[in-house]
């Protein structure tokens, strides 16, 4: 269409309607935007990887507080073909804990907190680089910013990972959680208890986690940091309601998706995010824009 000069501008835009009872499910506009479907101005962020509409994002906030893992930056892509929000297990476990989502209990995670939690805490208090902690206590062989499991991802199938790699991954998550709680000046007992609780909120391997439909109003707002601005999702926006056998089932809009470096950590912002924010894909200027949906 661009080569044939059939569109006015080198852009296309999405408006997705999350109301299941509405007559219109959404709108895709080639060459422009429909102004009645968004409020205010779009915030634009440069595309960092063409072909995937990838860009750089910052922290995910739970109730206004940092989750830590992406504070230094994560990659993200916008994908209308993905229903939910997919991101690092380390953060999704924190989201699950905050919204009361049912998860799975990780024995490796609990073992790390029980056997090494205090040591991890003491090393962080002593200003040990977080990336070095797990190798220093012997749970990760690789002494650097990436774990052993990340380095051998392309060689060894996930199902064949050794127990030591699972402990390494659990350790790396625990470091992030403890570091985050230390910033809040929590006591040692509260920090280790919190980490242990997160071990019980790890996302299901199947991806979806259920929440109590009656508790939606009590759940915190969640916010993505993009282009130094926060894009907030309310519980009504990030909880997906499904009808099954005449009953309403509530599903968390977050699922775990771990991509190793150098391409990751990575978020996929699917329909849950695009339903809340009108999205402009500007291939002329190689950028993506977001504005509140109307």
Automatic annotation (TrEMBL):
Matching InterPro entries: Aspartic_peptidase_A1, Aspartic_peptidase_AS, PEPTIDASE_A1, Peptidase_aspartic_dom_sf, SapB_1, SapB_2, Saposin-like, SaposinB_dom
Keyword field contains Ribonucleoprotein: no
UniProt-annotated location(s): Vacuole
Main location: other
Paired cysteines (S-S): 213-250
Keyword Ligase part of the UniProt annotation: no
Saposin B-type domain sequence ranges: 104-144, 164-205
Biological process terms in GO annotation: lipid metabolic process; proteolysis
GO CC terms in record: vacuole
PROSITE patterns tied to this protein: ASP_PROTEASE, PEPTIDASE_A1, SAP_B
Similarity comment: Belongs to the peptidase A1 family.
Its biological purpose: Involved in the breakdown of propeptides of storage proteins in protein-storage vacuoles.
Protein name, entry field: Peptidase A1 domain-containing protein
Native source organism of the sequence: Aegilops tauschii subsp. strangulata
């Amino acid at each position: 269409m661009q080569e044939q000069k059939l569109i006015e501008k080198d852009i296309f835009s999405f408006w997705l309607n999350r109301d299941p009872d509405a007559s219109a499910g959404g709108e895709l506009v080639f060459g422009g935007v429909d102004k009645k479907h968004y409020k205010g101005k779009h915030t634009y962020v440069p595309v960092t990887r063409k072909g995937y509409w990838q860009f750089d994002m910052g922290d995910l906030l739970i109730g206004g507080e940092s989750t830590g893992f992406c504070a230094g930056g994560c990659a993200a892509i916008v994908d209308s073909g993905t229903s939910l929000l997919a991101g690092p297990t380390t953060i999704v476990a924190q989201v699950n804990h905050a919204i009361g989502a049912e998860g799975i209990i990780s024995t490796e995670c609990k073992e790390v907190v029980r056997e090494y939690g205090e040591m991890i805490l003491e090393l962080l208090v002593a200003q040990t680089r977080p990336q070095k902690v797990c190798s220093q206590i012997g749970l990760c062989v690789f002494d650097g910013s990436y774990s052993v499991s990340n380095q051998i991802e392309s060689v060894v199938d996930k199902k064949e990972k050794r127990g030591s790699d699972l402990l390494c991954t659990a350790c790396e998550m625990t470091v992030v959680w403890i570091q985050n709680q230390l910033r809040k000046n929590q006591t040692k007992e509260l920090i280790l208890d919190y980490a242990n609780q997160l071990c019980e909120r790890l996302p299901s391997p199947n991806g979806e986690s259920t929440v109590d439909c009656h508790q939606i109003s009590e759940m915190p707002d969640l916010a993505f940091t993009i282009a130094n601005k926060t894009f907030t999702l309310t519980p009504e926006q990030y909880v997906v309601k499904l009808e099954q056998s005449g009953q309403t089932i509530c599903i968390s809009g977050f699922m775990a998706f771990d991509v190793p470096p150098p391409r990751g950590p990575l978020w996929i912002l699917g329909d849950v995010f695009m339903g809340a924010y009108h999205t402009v894909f500007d291939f002329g200027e190689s950028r993506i824009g977001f504005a509140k949906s109307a």
